[in-house]
Amino acid sequence: MNRMERDFRPDGLAELEYLDGEYRVVRPGSFVTCAVTGAAIPLEALRYWSVDLQEAYVSPQIALKRFQERGFTPR
């Protein structure tokens, strides 16, 4: 492995601020945790989150489930 092949991202849990259509890295890391399932979500795979709840979700189905629990959408 040479210098150009290294992955310089910090390992571990990242802390993010979830915004509309993007997020801001508060503490660097390589993944966040799904608020419903507890599964690790690599930052490059993170697509679903709630700005209001400041939570990440592993899939759109899990996000919908959380929104229904919180009364944000009809059941």
Give the helix/strand layout.
Blueprint: E1 15-19, E2 22-27, E3 31-33, E4 40-42, E5 48-50, E6 55-57, H1 60-69
Antiparallel strand pairs: 1-2, 3-4, 5-6
Tell me about this structure.
- The chain is of the alpha+beta class.
- The protein has one domain (12-69).
- The protein is built from 1 helix and 6 strands.
- The strands form 3 sheets. A two-stranded antiparallel ribbon has the order 1-2. The chain has a two-stranded antiparallel sheet with strand order 3-4. A two-stranded antiparallel ribbon has the order 5-6.
- The radius of gyration is 14 Å and the shape is globular.
- The mean pLDDT is 90.
First-last Cα distance: 52 Å
Rg calculated over all Cα atoms: 14 Å
What average pLDDT do the residues reach? 90
* Backbone structural class: alpha+beta
Largest β sheet strand count, sense and barrel closure: 2 strands, antiparallel
Helix tally equals: 1
Query: Strand arrangement, largest sheet?
Result: 1-2
Helical fraction: 10-25%
What percentage of the residues does DSSP assign to strands (E)? 25-35%
| Helix and strand run | EEEEEEH
By DSSP, the count of extended strands is 6
Describe the global form: globular
Low-confidence stretches: none
**What is the domain total for the residues?**
1
Summary keywords:
single chain, 75 residues, alpha+beta, two-stranded antiparallel ribbon, 1 helix, 6 strands, globular
In short:
It is built from 1 helix and 6 strands; from the N terminus they run ββββββα. It is an alpha+beta fold and 75 residues long.
